Fold this sequence. Notes:
It is a single chain. This protein is an alpha/beta fold. The chain has a single domain (36-250), classed as Rossmann fold (3-Layer(aba) Sandwich), CATH 3.40.50. 37% of the residues lie in helices and 22% in strands. Strands 1, 2, 3, 4, 5, 6, 7, 8 and 9 form a nine-stranded mixed β-sheet that branches. Residues 10-31 and 81-89 have low confidence and may be disordered. The structure holds S-adenosylmethionine.
Amino acid sequence: MMAPNLRRKIPQIQSEAASIDLMGAGAPGRLGSQRIIIDDDKLLKQLETECRRHLALYDRFYTETYGARSPAHLEKFIQNAKAEKGTFWDSFGVASLALLKEAGAGRGVRVLSLGSGIGTVETAAARILGADVTGIEYDRDYATVAKRAADWFKANGLTEGGLNLLQGDFLEHDLKGYDILYYFQLGTSDPKALEEKVLRGLKKGGRFVVYQYENRKGYGFPKLAEKSNLTKVDVKEGGLTLHAGAIFTHK
Length: 251
Ligand SMILES: C[S@@+](CC[C@H](N)C(=O)[O-])C[C@H]1O[C@@H](n2cnc3c(N)ncnc32)[C@H](O)[C@@H]1O
């Protein structure tokens, strides 16, 4: 089976970084928020070990399915893991999983990933945290890889929780019944539509988890911030700050 060309799509996501200040709430402090730091070395080491193992598993899936190494950016994620300027360039899952765990992801907890890409974080959340994970991805190539990955993890008995990775538009997906929504900041070109959807569809007490990509000023979603308890989260390991994010708990 021909491996899809996934690398060409990565710069498109990165180039959106410039627009982020326009969507940032920027002042969560005014909204009665709190800030927490996750710096439990033991937990973070465990997550790091598990995430490395997960990428090796993911690579096995990819090689078995497509007869090629998994996309080069996965390799790069590992190489860039401990980066410069005291910031941990975490894209292989540690901060995402720490955030999801902080938001309560675990056995029996229903997580919806909004824009599940090729499913690396999503398969990890099901395998490592044991959460019941659904993911929606618009891009057909990404979604096909993600669905095959989910099937492979399930067939090999590697998932603790449920794992259902679908192709579709998350703006049209029913949010009913989910405890946690996971969103990789900058994952949509229409954050306002997403905000409206979350405001209408996320249940009371449900959490909207925003994994922060690069900007450390704001998370976006100002209306949602007004109607939620907002917890800003930093993850620190060995003096390095990992990219982290925010948890909006719907009031
Ligand atoms: C930055 S990636 C996140 C991948 C993965 N969830 C992670 O945390 O590593 C964001 C993804 O959202 C997808 N996306 C953007 N808008 C979408 C929409 N309306 N419905 C479904 N997927 C969407 C993009 O195609 C992209 O693959």
